[in-house]
Amino acid sequence: MAMSAGASALGLVSPMPSGEGTIENELIAEIAVRIPPPVSTFLLTPLQHADDIVEQHRLCRTSTIQLVDAVGFAELRKLRKRLPGIKLVQVIHVTDENSIAEAKAVSSLVDALLLDSGNPSLAVKELGGTGRTHDWGLSRRIRDGVSLPLFLAGGLHGGNVADAIRAVRPYGVDLCSGIRTGGRLDKAKMLRFFDAIRQTETHTGY
To answer: Which of 55, 64, 125, 156 is a plausible cystine mate for 175, CB 3.0–4.6 Å?
Structure first.
């Protein structure tokens, strides 16, 4: 459904403390092996230690790993060494000015950043799928301050994605709850989302 609508990447969400759309590692592996190029497969993982992430990836076999919680610099370097052909995307949960410094600090160690609206400091961590937007002004400052590709997430849907693209000018956009109804993917919402993106591209040349 996602690929037919125009998705260039599929996010496969492994078990998380909270959020929608999680599936087991075995199902992620089953899906990932069937996705044809050039569509990318993203393993969304909350793990923070390189050894654990490598072990999970060996099972799931995606083309990209999306780190939804903060991962230490030493662990990122270890991941680079042990998974040299796999892209690393670090999620930055945009909450305040500190998020800008966090993004800049990690930008040399990963292939891309993804800006989301979670809150890892809660007792039950929010690591995505919140359905909330964040301050796109902060996101734009991060976008202008780093040189690598940047994805925007957090409460995006067909009704606001055009405004989000114009405000932040991301490399790409990412969503979860905005195309779900009753916890399941909703084809009508998905098509509206991609139609809004295409209209934005037509009107702005972006």
So the answer is: 156
Strands 64-67 and 40-45: parallel
The number of angstroms, rounded, from the C-alpha of 140 to the middle of its chain's C-alpha atoms is 16
Any idea what DSSP says for residue 22? B
d(CA 86, CA 108): 16
What is the number of residues in the chain? 206
DSSP assignment of 50-73 equals HHHHHHHHHHH--SEEEE-S---H
Say which amino acid occupies 49: H
Structurally, the chain folds into a number of domains equal to 1
Q: pLDDT for 122-175, tens place per residue?
A: 888 988 888 899 999 999 999 999 999 999 999 999 999 999 999 999 999 999
Residue 193: both structure tokens together: 């989302």
State the virtual CA torsion across 100, 105, 107, 113 in degrees, nearest 10. Answer: -40
- In tens, the pLDDT along 163-173 reads 999 999 999 99
Residue type present at position 61: R
Q: How far apart are CA 34 and CA 73, in angstroms?
A: 33
* pTM, 2 dp: 0.93
For the beta carbon of residue 182, count every other beta carbon within 10 angstroms.
5
Enclosing domain of residue 118? 2-204
Axis-axis angle for helices 161-168, 136-145 (nearest 10): 40
Residue 89 sits in a domain whose CATH number is 3.20.20.70
Pairwise CA distance, residues 61 & 35, whole Å? 11
